[in-house]
């Protein structure tokens, strides 16, 4: 039965929808709307998120609710500790419907498959009207992505990215050509770190009393989850996120491009923007950031390769993985084209490994709930690929440990980009590399028990034999691939004895790996 018009509209806002420009708020009036925000047990525990990730989301939610109330909105906020908390979104919306008897529930579609499935049941479960609005914080609609992807065998980001450049006009000159003549300047963005590289400190935001209250809550309720709360300094409000963005555009964007793939032990941020947590929560608008980057280039404050690289990560990769996720779900979750079956090694959780590169990336992950892209891809991801770790375990790990991790962005990066589990729809070849690559792009090897120059046997960098073990066991599939197939000529030239040394060395190393207890990622 339709409700009378004097009943309010109930607007549930999820934890990663923290913007006043949300489609469900646009055009609403304050006296006619009740905003519902819900801290719920199911979201906090469906995987055992890093402690900083829960603290960040709850603190940002509470600050956003306060900002809305100060602006005159009516906000119904359920805290995790409320005795009647139903523990999940559907139960909390049901309780709110009893409290407010709304004429309409208006919600923006959830970012994740799991939650979207639940929300799609609301119209059947609840008596009143329910509308589910498109999340227009993304530049590309799903219909656009699906149309672009239709009839393509492979879905390369590069071609999608050019469409997004044309759609937004970012770095496109008046004649329709890309600024500077090229669409992509990645070849200029592969500088190894140089000695004494000076990296400006990124701003950190000391917890205020609201954040401290959340930190205490997380410590009490989730203190056995992975990671530490010490040094929590993420932006939790739009204002803080803007300050973080200002600092990036003032101090780091210049070197962002050239050192994008560099890694330095103990330097956790380098020249990265460190803005993913704020963008994904809704505190920063991705298009606005790209426009600011373009302005920096047009005004001569930042070089084109840095600005193009930054814009590509956002309107290219970020938009692309989101379209890819919805295009490939739900089977992407179960994809395992390389039939990888090994358990995740325990050291991914403890950091206890002699491999200096992995140890540093895991330490940064534990301390900051963050590691930068090339660490996620070419160290942590490369190892998981070469060692044949089962995709579901790797997916869970990435979803737990990073403060910016939501399944729509984590899953394509893990299943398709690092593990090639989709069989090559996303990546034209597996991102497999030996110790050579890490040695070239970082200073890790200088402080490692192993040597990147030693190929097999005692003291050899494990990435070296693992690389050939991987190539050998996937020969049938990869030999046909024109981007990687030629490597087999090198393998064949080695001769059987040398090949055996590589394979034995890899197997001896793999035998030392202790599988992690699954309880690290999910409550059994
Ligand atoms: P910067 O290096 O400054 O890049 C600028 C922005 O570009 C980022 O803030 C982010 O919004 C976007 N971006 C860059 N690369 C990607 C990408 N591959 N996919 C989507 N967006 C991108 N990013 C997440 O936001 N959440 C995740 O759960 C996540 N999981 C990842 C898992 C793996 C295996 C890999 C290889 C990458 C993953 N990324 C993820 C992408 C990337 O590593 C992070 O976005 C980045 O490290 C965040 O730090 P930053 O803000 O300093 O990024
Ligand atoms: C990740 C997360 C966590 C830990 N907790 C909550 C929560 O209690 N309430 C909430 O609204 N959102 C939370 N989130 C973010 C949601 O998981 C995210 O909004 C959905 O997964 C998007 O589909
Ligand atoms: Fe990593 Fe190998 Fe270098 Fe050690 S030698 S830091 S394991 S790449």
Describe this protein's structure:
- The protein is built from 21 helices and 5 strands.
- The protein is mainly alpha-helical and 524 residues long.
- It has a 5-stranded parallel β-sheet with strand order 3-2-1-4-5, with helices on both faces.
- The protein starts with 8 loop residues before the first strand and ends in a 13-residue tail after the last helix.
- The protein binds flavin-adenine dinucleotide, ligand DLZ and iron/sulfur cluster.
- Ligand DLZ binds at residues 14-16, 38-40, 43-44, 49, 54, 57, 110-112, 115, 406.
Fill in the keyword field for this structure.
single chain, 524 residues, mainly alpha, Rossmann fold, Serine Threonine Protein Phosphatase 5, Tetratricopeptide repeat, DNA Cyclobutane Dipyrimidine Photolyase, subunit A, domain 3, 3 domains, five-stranded parallel beta sheet, 21 helices, globular, binds ligand DLZ
């Amino acid at each position: 039965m339709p409700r009378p018009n004097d009943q309010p509209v109930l607007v549930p806002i999820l934890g990663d929808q923290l913007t006043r420009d949300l489609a469900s708020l646009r055009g609403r009036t304050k006296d006619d709307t009740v905003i519902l925000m819900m801290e719920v047990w199911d979201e906090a525990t469906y995987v055992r998120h890093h402690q900083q990730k829960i603290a960040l989301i709850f603190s940002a939610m509470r600050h956003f609710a306060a900002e809305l109330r100060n602006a005159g909105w009516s906000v119904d906020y359920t805290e995790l500790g409320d005795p009647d908390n139903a523990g999940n979104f559907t139960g909390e919306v049901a309780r709110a419907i009893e409290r407010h008897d709304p004429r309409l529930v208006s919600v923006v579609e959830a970012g994740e498959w799991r939650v979207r499935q639940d929300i799609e049941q609301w119209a059947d479960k609840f008596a009143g009207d329910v509308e589910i609005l498109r999340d227009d914080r993304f530049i590309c609609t799903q219909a656009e992505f699906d149309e672009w992807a239709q009839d393509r065998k492979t879905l390369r980001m590069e071609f999608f990215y050019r469409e997004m450049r044309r759609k937004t006009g970012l770095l496109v000159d008046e004649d329709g050509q890309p600024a500077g003549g090229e669409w992509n300047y990645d070849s200029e963005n592969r500088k190894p770190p140089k000695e004494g590289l000076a990296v400006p400190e990124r701003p950190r935001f000391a917890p205020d009393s609201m954040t401290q209250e959340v930190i205490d809550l997380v410590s009490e309720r989730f203190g056995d989850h992975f990671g530490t709360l010490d040094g929590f300094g993420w932006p939790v409000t739009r204002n803080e996120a803007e300050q973080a963005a200002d600092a990036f555009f003032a101090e780091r964007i210049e070197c962002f491009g050239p050192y994008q793939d560099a890694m330095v032990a103990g330097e956790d941020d380098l020249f990265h923007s460190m803005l993913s947590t704020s963008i994904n929560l809704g505190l920063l608008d991705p298009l606005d950031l790209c426009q600011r980057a373009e302005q920096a280039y047009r005004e001569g404050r930042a070089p084109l390769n840095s600005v193009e690289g930054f814009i590509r990560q956002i309107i290219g990769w970020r938009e692309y993985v989101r379209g890819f996720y919805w295009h490939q779900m739900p089977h992407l979750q179960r994809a395992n084209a390389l039939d990888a079956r090994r358990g995740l090694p325990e050291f991914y959780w403890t950091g206890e490994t002699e491999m200096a590169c992995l140890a540093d990336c895991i330490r940064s992950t534990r301390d900051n709930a963050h590691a930068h892209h090339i660490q996620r891809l070419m160290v942590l991801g490369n190892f998981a690929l070469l060692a044949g770790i089962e995709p579901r375990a790797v997916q869970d790990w990435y979803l737990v440990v990073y403060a910016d991790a939501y399944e729509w962005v984590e899953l394509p990066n893990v299943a398709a980009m690092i593990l090639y589990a989709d069989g090559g729809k996303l990546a034209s070849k597996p991102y497999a590399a030996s110790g050579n690559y890490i040695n070239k792009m970082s200073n890790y090897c200088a402080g490692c028990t192993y040597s990147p120059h030693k190929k097999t046997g005692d003291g050899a960098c494990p990435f070296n034999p693992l690389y050939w073990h991987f190539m050998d066991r996937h020969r049938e599939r990869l030999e046909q691939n024109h981007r990687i197939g030629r490597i087999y000529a090198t393998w064949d030239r080695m001769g059987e004895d040398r090949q055996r040394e590589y394979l034995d060395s890899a197997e001896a190393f793999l035998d030392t790996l202790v599988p992690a207890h699954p309880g690290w990622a999910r409550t059994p």
